[in-house]
Amino acid sequence: MGEQPIFSTRAHVFQIDPNTKKNWVPTSKHAVTVSYFYDSTRNVYRIISLDGSKAIINSTITPNMTFTKTSQKFGQWADSRANTVYGLGFSSEHHLSKFAEKFQEFKEAARLAKEKSQEKMELTSTPSQLVSENSLLQWHQQYYPPQHPCLINFLTSFQKVVRARNQTTSSLSFNPNLLFALTLFSTSSSRSSLLILVVLLHVNKAICFCCHFH
Fold first, then answer.
1. Which pLDDT value is given to residue 70?
2. Are 134 and 102 within one domain?
3. Which part of the chain is the WH1 domain (predicted)?
4. How many CA atoms lie within 13 Å of 14's alpha carbon, on the beta-carbon side?
5. Which of 46, 60, 131, 152 could join 174 in a cystine, given CB atoms 3.0 to 4.6 angstroms apart?
6. How confident is the model at residue 153, as a pLDDT?
7. Which among 74, 98, 124 is the end of a domain?
8. Dihedrals φ, ψ of 93, to 5°?
9. What is the mean pLDDT of each successive set of 10 residues along the chain, which is 214 residues long?
């Protein structure tokens, strides 16, 4: 469906003077249509207003925004992304109140959409895919007791390198299949194999470790 208007009204549009941060500067010569839009694909709510072909309001609603009634017919909200404060002058108190109600409604919807998105991200990061670098060695020792001492040295070096790179997160993406591969190498009868382990971190960086088995 894409982005569709879900509520419209008419108002005079203003923006705060960027120099004084006090005075209002009119951005429309007359009352224009001000609409709430909803993008079902991205779960995003926006306030949009056009004066002819010029967009005079393009404001994405976020959970931390607040619409404030400053008089019976005037209201305002700050948009940090646009680095401005928008003001709307309505023809009646009823129109102002209706716009304020919708602002609060869509603000709450934006908050719920954000929380749902965060929960979905957490669910996709299962414990088997997230291994703390501090417990990587203990985890492998518990489930796959190594047969070769070089494997212990390898995993210990892995921990040291990750800490040296100042990773800011407590967990990193780690494919359990790689641990299984380590087990196969550690129990292998081959004495002259070269193991190259590529660990893809969550920041889309890669670290390559080489370990010789003698």
1. 96
2. no
3. 1-110
4. 17
5. 131
6. 65
7. 124
8. -65, -35
9. 91 95 93 96 95 95 96 97 96 98 96 83 58 53 55 62 52 48 48 41 39 40
Of 123, 98, 103, 115, the residue nearest 43 (C-alpha) = 115
User: Do 101 and 77 lie in a common domain?
Assistant: yes
Residue 13 sits in the same domain as residue 109: yes
Of 84, 108, 124, the one marking the end of a domain is 124
Whether the full predicted model's pTM is greater than 0.90, yes or no, is no
Question: Which pLDDT does position 118 carry in this prediction?
Answer: 78
Residue 114 pLDDT: 85
Q: Report d(CA 53, CA 102) in Å as an integer.
A: 25
Which residue segment(s) compose the domain that 149 sits in?
Answer: 130-212
